[in-house]
Amino acid sequence: MNTVGTTGSTPRDPQLRGQTVVVIGGSSGIGFETARYARAEGANVILTGRDPGRLQRAASELGALSATAFDAVDSASVARFFRDLSTPLDHVMVTAGRPHYGRLVDADPARARDALDEHLVPVLQIARGAASRMRAGGTLLFMGGTGGRRPGVGQGILSTVTAALPALTANLALELAPVRVNLIAAGFVDTPLSASILGDQLEGRRKQLRASLPIRRVVEASDVAALAVHIMVNTALTGATYDVDGGQQLVAG
After folding, report:
1. What is the largest CA-CA distance in the chain?
2. Is the pTM of this model over 0.85?
3. How far is Cα 140 from Cα 97, in angstroms, rounded to an integer?
4. Residue 149 lies in a domain
């Protein structure tokens, strides 16, 4: 029998070579990992974040094209950031923001309004600012979650945001075409943000998830980053929500 073999694997070309990726909230966690994966695939990266010191350390480590410190909730800062960019963009990923918990009936109206503004308004502001800077076929990529899909006391405004983001994503995909718009919905991800929220309860949460999740491990920032880069590369994907939660929504807790 004749066979054809190889003595080694053939190196593949980096999938984002020559492309420019902006990561808003790119100084740590999921954003930083996504920027790192994009760099490994040949992309130039531009980082933003709220903490100037942490942002500069991340930019230096990754060899970022540039880094700009601002709060993504500040509409004027978002508009100025995109207006001042001279580089055409291929992909923009947004990981800024943190969840808000608590009973809905106990929520102060002003605080509830702020929570909605923090999660939903930046999506529209970033879409507006980025659209004119992006090449056709590139993607705007937002972060949402799966946890709020199951009603529960204490979910607060999270369930509203969880329901709203897929609808916003689908509509923006139609309005901004041929720029693509997609959403990643994550469950618990082991990041510095998770550690800051859970404090000394973090290890207990990890153990619980290792025992209950179908994948028998905790989802890491690298899992989300790998999905994000795949969505950037695959130009057939738009208007959709992609879950990465290790099956968390399928089990109790």
Report:
1. 76
2. yes
3. 16
4. yes
240 vs 24, 35, 180, 193, CA distance in Å? 20, 21, 10, 25
- Show the tokens assigned to 195: 């550690």
CA distances from 133 to 43, 70, 110 (A): 17, 19, 34
Taking only the tens of pLDDT, the chain with its 253 residues reads 444 444 556 777 899 999 999 999 999 999 999 999 999 999 999 999 999 999 999 999 999 999 999 999 899 999 999 999 999 999 999 997 666 556 656 666 777 677 777 778 889 999 999 998 999 999 999 999 887 777 666 566 777 788 889 999 999 999 999 999 999 999 999 988 888 888 999 999 999 999 999 999 999 999 999 999 999 999 999 999 999 999 998 886 5
Position of tokens 């994550």?
186
The one-letter amino acid at 26: G
For 221, the token pair is 């920032």
Where in the sequence is the domain holding 229, given as residue range(s)?
20-191+220-246
Examine residue 119 and state whether it is found in any structural domain, yes or no. yes
Distance CA 234, CA 82 (A): 24
User: Does 117 reside within a domain?
Assistant: yes
Give me the amino acid identity at 240: A
Number of folded domains in the chain? 1
